[in-house]
């Protein structure tokens, strides 16, 4: 009996393996049987600044909340382009990145390591309301802006963690970029 095995990620704290068995074509067809096995829940990871692999080769920044996906792009003559709001956000993040690098005594070593290794990105979104924004809506522009400001190609990011929080008084995003855990 052939077996198809697929690992599916259900949530940040639950991992499941779904095993489906199919009968061979010469026998009567019946509905596939599916077994769902759930792995034990792991505790929520610590805040981005407390991750053990960070060391001095990581960068942690607090940035403004990016524009919504509807405001990030504009259609001009049938082409999708980064809007003025998107360009302004990227420029602002680039300035904040360089300001952070200027304040860091080990920026040369940090940049060299970030440019040569696989990276893990953690973003904590602090929105004014739980229902107004998706957690992944600001991922692409925040990732592009941060990597562009550091002079890193964002294809080096192999691990992404997104978290959604509510802070009505101080909306922001907290980003943490570090070499990925071995």
What does this structure look like?
With 182 residues, the protein is of the alpha+beta class. The protein folds into two domains: 3-38, no CATH class; 48-179, 60s Ribosomal Protein L30, Chain: A (2-Layer Sandwich), CATH 3.30.1330.70. The chain has helices at residues 69-72, 84-103, 107-116, 139-150; strands at 3-9, 15-21, 33-38, 59-63, 73-76, 79-82, 119-127, 157-166, 172-179. Helix 2 (84-103) packs across helix 4. The longest helix has 20 residues, at 84-103. The radius of gyration is 21 Å and the shape is globular. It starts with a strand and ends with a strand. The model is unreliable at 1-53 (pLDDT under 50).
Notable characteristics:
alpha+beta; about 180 residues; 2 domains; 3-stranded antiparallel β-sheet; globular; 4-stranded mixed β-sheet; 60s Ribosomal Protein L30, Chain: A; single chain
Q: What portion of the residues fall into strands of 2 or more residues?
A: 25-35%
| Strand arrangement across the biggest beta sheet | 4-9-7-8
Shape: globular
How many whole angstroms does the radius of gyration measure? 21 Å
CATH architecture of the largest domain: 2-Layer Sandwich
Q: What characterizes the major β-sheet?
A: 4 strands, mixed
Q: What's the short story on this structure?
A:
The protein is an alpha+beta fold.
Secondary structure elements and pairings:
Blueprint: E1 3-9, E2 15-21, E3 33-38, E4 59-63, H1 69-72, E5 73-76, E6 79-82, H2 84-103, H3 107-116, E7 119-127, H4 139-150, E8 157-166, E9 172-179
Parallel strand pairs: 7-8
Antiparallel strand pairs: 1-2, 2-3, 4-9, 5-6, 7-9
Helix pairs in contact: 2-4
């Amino acid at each position: 009996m052939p077996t198809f095995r697929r690992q599916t990620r259900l949530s940040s704290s639950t991992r499941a393996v779904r095993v489906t068995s199919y009968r061979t074509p010469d026998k009567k067809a019946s509905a596939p049987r599916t077994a769902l096995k759930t792995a034990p829940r792991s505790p929520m990871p610590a805040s981005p600044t407390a991750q053990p692999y960070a060391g001095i080769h990581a960068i942690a920044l607090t940035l403004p909340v990016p524009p919504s996906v509807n405001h990030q792009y504009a259609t001009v003559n049938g082409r999708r382009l980064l809007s003025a709001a998107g360009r302004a956000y990227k420029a602002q993040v680039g300035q904040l990145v360089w300001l952070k690098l200027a304040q860091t005594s080990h920026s040369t070593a940090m940049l060299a390591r970030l440019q040569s290794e696989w990276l893990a990105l953690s973003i904590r979104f602090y929105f004014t309301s739980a229902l107004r924004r998706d957690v992944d809506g600001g991922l692409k522009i925040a990732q592009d802006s941060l990597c562009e400001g550091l002079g890193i190609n964002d294809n080096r990011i192999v691990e992404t963690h997104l978290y959604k929080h509510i802070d009505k008084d101080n909306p922001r995003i907290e980003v943490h970029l570090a070499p990925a855990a071995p």
